[in-house]
Amino acid sequence: MSASGYVQHYSAKVSDIYFIRPIKMFKSRFKFAQTKVAVGALLLLSCLPFAATAASLEAQLSQYAATAKAANPGFAGFSAARGEALHTRNFASGKPDTPACTSCHGKDPRSAGQTLTGKRIEAVALSVSPSRYADPAKVEKWFKRNCNEVIGRECTAQEKGDWLTFVGSR
Amino acid sequence: MKFPTRPVSLGLLVLAFSALVFSRAQAGGGHYYPPVVDPVVKEECGSCHLAFPAAMLPAASWKRMMGELENHFGDNAAVDPALARKITAYLVANAGDAAGQRYSAKLLRGVDAASAPQRITALPQWVREHRKVPDWEWRHKDVRSKANCTACHADAELGYYED
Questions:
Q1: Across the 170 residues of chain A, what is the mean pLDDT of every consecutive 10-residue run?
Q2: B39 has a chain A CB within 8 A of its CB
Q3: What is the ipTM of this complex?
Q4: pTM of this prediction?
């Protein structure tokens, strides 16, 4: 049996992953127990990015909210519906070959997109790509590039917050 | 005592994998261009298109390109200065005319490095290799751009350009 066979076998059993009966295992089936430790560690690790994402997306949204409120005292929160409208709207003010966010990200945020040079872009919906939006600098960098490309100007804090609320809700 | 097996077996895996790549590279000869392995370069230069192998252009080309990222073939690909320095260092160290390069000789044949060409797809040898590709193929909706290497070279991400 191969090492991956062990992993597959053991990851199917929750009790093993949570180390419920490790002591005997360590003595009699040393190798198995080691695999379980590795599987457990991997599982724990794979939970971390998600937690980090939720926290940093939240933090980024509240920062955008503060900026949006400063710009417009009537600001009453972000809207996924407005974010979706932004996502699908055809602008005439940017580059002709990329009139909308959908030009690269596709209409359905849960599906993968593609750049004009054929590079695959993972889905932008948080539910499909849970490791997204964990790095505020990355988010800002791409808003700057993509809004300029599509709209011909940078997006406002309100637009960014709406769009993130939209993809965060999908 | 608990963890060493993981790093060790990982190490063995990496070794086995690089042995595989190495032997294929030798068999492939002129088709092989080592793919970008640096994670930063892969992220910054590989999200809009394939992270083109550094060995496909001479060092002077990369230096010029990295100085003009705000206007990168009509796109703004700018990164902050510290990152740009890191990326430049990697591309220059692995450029086609860097010391010790064995694979890129073919694509850079007849190229004057000092002219710092910016497009791989405009290198004379690249054009020659692709002269038989018909017009409709370039315009096919799954290709669209000559820079979309992976549309035709399925293993381009791994550095292979044979078919």
A1: 37 37 36 46 51 76 96 95 98 94 97 93 96 93 96 97 96
A2: no
A3: 0.75
A4: 0.81
Nearest to B48 among A115, A141, A148 (CB): A115
Q: Where do the structural domains in chain B lie, given as residue ranges?
A: 30-158
Interface test with B, best of A4, A119, A144 (most B CBs within 10 A): A119
The domain covering A54-168 belongs, at the CATH homologous superfamily level, to Cytochrome c-like domain (1.10.760.10)
Query: How far is B36 from A77, CA to CA, in rounded Å?
Result: 43
User: How high is the pLDDT of residue B41?
Assistant: 98
Domain residue extents for chain A: 54-168
State pLDDT tens for residues A5-55: 333 333 333 333 334 333 333 333 334 444 454 554 555 555 455 555 667
**Mutate: best of B5, B50, B149, partner A, most A CBs <10 A:** B5
B117 burial level (CB within 10 Å; 0-12, 13-18, 19+): buried
- B151–A118: do the CB atoms touch at under 8 Å? yes
Alpha-carbon gap: B37 to the closest alpha carbon of chain A (Å):
17
